[in-house]
Description:
Chain A is an alpha+beta fold and 153 residues long. Chain A has 4 helices and 6 strands; from the N terminus they run H-H-H-E-E-H-E-E-E-E. In chain A, strands 2-1-6-5-4-3 form a 6-stranded mixed β-sheet, covered by helices on one side. Chain A is elongated, with a radius of gyration of 20 Å. About 5% of the residues of chain A have low confidence. The interface between A and B is medium-sized, with 32 and 32 residues.
Amino acid sequence: MQLHKFVRVLLLLAVLGSTLAVAKDGSGDEQAIRALDAAWSQAAGAKALDKTVSFYADDASLLPSNAPIANGKEAIRAAWGQFMAMPGFSISFAPNKIVVAKSGDLAYEIGTFQSTLNDAQGKPASSAGKYVVNWQKRAGQWKVVADIFNDDK
Amino acid sequence: MQLHKFVRVLLLLAVLGSTLAVAKDGSGDEQAIRALDAAWSQAAGAKALDKTVSFYADDASLLPSNAPIANGKEAIRAAWGQFMAMPGFSISFAPNKIVVAKSGDLAYEIGTFQSTLNDAQGKPASSAGKYVVNWQKRAGQWKVVADIFNDDK
């Protein structure tokens, strides 16, 4: 009985410890952002324009390579619409690093993407690149507020 | 005398109000980051390599256009050294928007840059672009932790 009680106390401490760890290092927020990234990459890869744009805050900024900044959801929708309309377009991306502010209202992530477009001969040409995305919690929900990327080559 | 006292109370309220405003919206942090940006841009424009690299955290990442990610201060120094060694190199940049986390430990900024390099004929060719820089407070001092940019054209 004594041993049984001791094991239960140990288990309780372990649960409390991991809960506190999640609260302290913000890994709950990090996991929430990772889940959003997975859904966002899938939407973009499937050329689901509405879904792709839904991850941005209304006043977000998209800063594409070799194009002017797109401020606000309408401009961002137009830019993503242009990407998705390019022949042979496909994309996938995922974060390598996510850092969340102690206050849990702001975060940034660094990640990599792979994209494909048809070249001048109509053959698929892949390119690899990297990005930084900033997230802000709006009404309890993480939203993209700044999204910038560039090619590795 | 009554009027005199009234004016003093008004002045006191004004001072208190502005102090509270600074504490609440983090504009003290924003101003600190703007001052760092001004010094950083000046250092980069003057090709002061040590000074330019000093604004980064030891574990920062630089994500340049058309080049791989540079992780850590040594790799960042090498990348900036290559930029500065290009014939006709000059650069200046400044933020348009700075957002600071409520906890005052993380911030991001969106800005624009103008750079010049000599073209194949040795003539100065200017280009304009945009960037996102993430700052993190380390031991009470704001340091760049992620720096990514790309061209407008």
